[in-house]
Amino acid sequence: MADIRAYQPAFTAGELSPALGARVDLAKYASGLRTAVNLIIHPHGGASNRSGTEFVCEVKDSADEARLIPFQFNTEQTYVLELGDEYIRFVRDGGQILNGGVPYEISTPYSDVEAQDVVPTQEADVMYLTHIKHSPMKLGRLAETNWTLAAPTFAPKIGAPVLTGVTKPGSTSGDPGYTATTYYYRVAAVAESGEESLPSNIGSVVNDLALQGGINRVAWNAVAGAVRYIVYRADNGIYGYIGGTFGLTFDDENIVPDLSDTPQTGRNPFVGAGNYPRCSTFIEQRLAFASTANDPQAVWMSQSANYENFGVSSPAKPNDAVTFRIRSRKVNEIRSLLALKGLMVLTSGAEWLVSGGTNSDAITPGAIKIDNEGYRGSARVQPIVVGKTILFAQARGGVVRDFSYQFADDGFVDKDLTILARHLFEDKNIKAWGYAQAPHSIAWVVLDDGSLVSLTYMKEHDVWAWTRHESGPDNDAIFEDVAIVEEGNEDVPYFVVRRTVGGVRKRYIERLHSRSFKKVEDAFFVDCGLTYTGAPATVITGLDHLMGQEVVALADGNVVRNLVVGEVTGGVGVTLPNAASKVHVGLPMTATLETLNLDLGQVPGLGTAQGRQKSISEVTLRVERTRGIFIGPYDGDRESKHLVEYKQRATEAWGEAIKLYTGDLKITPQWDWNTNGRMFVKQFDPLPMTILAIMPDVTLGR
Fold first, then answer.
1. pLDDT of res. 579
2. Could you tell me the pTM of the whole model?
3. Are 26 and 20 in contact (CB under 8 A)?
């Protein structure tokens, strides 16, 4: 027999697949877990139970699907759009926006099913929405309860002048050598932004400017917003630049047209069924669209700085709109566009980088270089950008890859981020996801079976850790969507969660509560919950959305279990045994952490500990701001009766909330001999738990 203290100081590998149960040779085995439920992994190593979700509102119609889209107007005004069956509703700072006491909404052309495939692209207070069955739409925010949604015209914003006449103040008619020549003119207006209008109507006059004194005068009307005008004259049917002016007339004294600078031709590539783009992005001051049903490999980029102008000239100018196609062995539809070291184009079968030729060259009509960067293929869910790395869902197999440029390889390389947790993705695909950079660098991922997983990702420290999340009675909640917006100092996830309440299906929008708190009374670890703050009260109302559900409360820092929501004085709610001034009420949430089979390396005189009988006589947990822990050997039952609670009350007065503890806790688990040496840690109260390290004292049999 040998007594050994084992030590696991970090959990940065997250939950590992059962298929890795024997891979003690892997470096990440030492920081992995067998199960991690309702936990988040901190990049520095610890594991905490996730905070609870706050109830925001029910979707407009719980019978229909709903989509969440983040909209960030500025650092202080962020919104979550509820996109449903032909409508958009709006949420801000955890509350639904009302107008006249009812939810404010606008109409859309999308059904609830179509809404799932809408791709948003935003700049400032404008967002473009694309769907392959609908014309692109432009969503604009004018005020909190004044939003507009309309199809862009895809034409210059500044109107074309109307040419009012062409006269010849310098007529050469009758002069010796006179040859009657018809001169044709067009005029374009230029806005303060530099955008040029479509050319005016054609004006003409007969004269001979080749003779001395010949002058043609072109006149036009003023255009609102114009800061100057450009005049073009025809030469063999092609109009070329002859000059510009701030006025409304221009005199041509036989200026030679510059046929390398011609007026633009208006163009809208997105007219009619089959010509609607699937996705979009902003790149190099251009708005780019891609992949129609009729042309799935095509990309259209607007004029530079003129997002809704797809006009072109002949010959092309550097700021003209750009069109190109991704030619490959298969007709792979383009599924995503994003700006990263050029224009990254993800298709159903390959990844491509489009640039102007070198790192410093912009993409123009005359400078387009298309390089293949891999043949993985991307799913339709839009990728996430983390720093300078792309996370994308592979087209098949439920795989997430990180994709980034590596100088040593002079190209993009990728890594499978799901290889160590493959069991979480078997027979599943990613339905929606979002990245919360602050405070913990976590991607929240909704799978198509309704499960929710999270990925703590910090590439520079080689941290990528998966955990899974459950909610509701018997863990029956179905997660359907997620969107993340910046609120204050944190990136906040919002979810669409399908629950069964009173035998009726409900779809709720729920907001993940901040895990930042100073006192235990502020800790929020209930799901679909609400908070009461005010004068001490025993009756807490406003819980209509949880009618008939068994809930738990944290009342002034004290746990109150076995509450059932029902009719109470003043509405629907619960009655507490003691009055409290700050109460969090919601569905209970259980967080669990299970270690992998204990590995001690090569024990002198004994060899490996794998497969040997072993017993844990004592466990030391290094914790941070924690209260309420159960620990013991796992017997296959998450409600295991073999767990031992750490008795934490110490110096607190009777009735005072037990304080949070930071330091080492020593717990003696129930005695057991087994061959795995695993420990199971559980938190089922609405209280915080953060485990920094686990140190079991092991008695190892020979």
1. 97
2. 0.94
3. yes
